[in-house]
From TrEMBL:
Listed GO biological process terms: amino acid transport
The entry's keywords: Cell membrane, Membrane, Transmembrane, Transmembrane helix
Record's protein name: Lysine transporter LysE
Location in or out of the cell: Cell membrane
Organism: Campylobacter novaezeelandiae
Keyword Transmembrane found: yes
Length: 199
């Protein structure tokens, strides 16, 4: 049982630690407000849990459809590109963490996390592959618990530590982070289309 739990945690960290679009958005939000950053992560996590329950009750198979995946990829590309655009057009005055109040409500931040994960066909692909791995485990429920613990731990740790040490970031550094983050997110957007339609 412990081996299954550990395997689930390793898989969870393996999925959540690499810097994809969700982690980039969590990081940029954590530079402003911890709770909004956490809301983004929990929104993305909610989609993971939705797919997990669909998988558990054998309902995720219908999502493994070429046309559905292509439509999802197009919407994902548009949403990711929009997020990248918003990061690039941030005004310098908005990057001053000490003087500007962050006004986005938590539900809006949560929805961004939902859409970011929900419009990514690779998330569906991941959960479909997890099904194959979990079936081979002697204690599949323990593996899923490990997976959930690892993902939630990473979301909290990333949000907390970036928010805790945000005073070390000047407006100039944050502008640089935003530009790099926008480029990374746009890379994922283009890669999403490439892998879906060409690769």
């Amino acid at each position: 049982m412990f081996d299954s739990l550990l395997n689930g945690m390793i898989l969870g960290f393996g999925v959540s630690v690499p810097f994809g679009p969700v982690n980039i958005l969590i990081l940029t939000y954590a530079l402003r407000v911890f709770k909004n950053s956490l809301a983004v992560g929990l929104g993305a996590f909610s989609v993971d849990m939705l797919y997990f329950f669909l998988l558990k009750f054998g309902l995720i198979g219908f999502l493994d459809n070429a046309i559905f995946m292509k439509v999802l990829a197009v919407f994902g590309f548009v949403f990711l590109s929009y997020m990248a655009f918003l990061m690039l057009v941030k005004k310098n005055k908005d990057l001053n963490l000490k003087n500007v109040e962050f006004k986005e409500n938590l539900f809006k931040s949560y929805l961004k996390g939902v859409f970011l994960n929900g419009l990514n066909p690779f998330v569906i692909g991941f959960w479909l592959s997890v099904a194959g791995i979990a079936i081979k485990e002697s204690h599949p429920n323990a593996m899923v618990i490990g997976l959930i613990v690892a993902i939630l731990s990473w979301i909290f740790a990333l949000s907390f530590f970036v928010a805790r040490y945000k005073d070390f970031f000047s407006a100039r550094i944050i502008k640089f982070i935003n530009i790099i983050s926008a480029l990374i997110i746009e890379y994922f957007a283009i890669n999403l289309l490439y892998k879906t339609f060409i690769g």
